[in-house]
């Protein structure tokens, strides 16, 4: 009984701590510089972080570029979309 209750408490904690992610997808349109500049602007990335994300997107097809609450991510994702990038919140 105690083990079951402990498991339920852990599941509840995980649910509360779950954060959303902005996933950026590769495209054949945008330049590396544009993607990097946009990540710096929209996601508050450092230049090195933005460059690494751009490379991951290019070679892997997608990359999580920001995690957090939906309220924080929604305007950031909108900025990425307005800049012509392909992104979504999951």
TrEMBL record:
It comes from the Bacteria. Gene3D superfamilies: 3.30.1390.10. It holds the Pfam family ClpS. Residues 19-83 form the Adaptor protein ClpS core domain. SUPFAM superfamilies: ClpS-like. GO terms for biological process: protein catabolic process. This is Adaptor protein ClpS core domain-containing protein. It comes from Winogradskyella psychrotolerans RS-3.
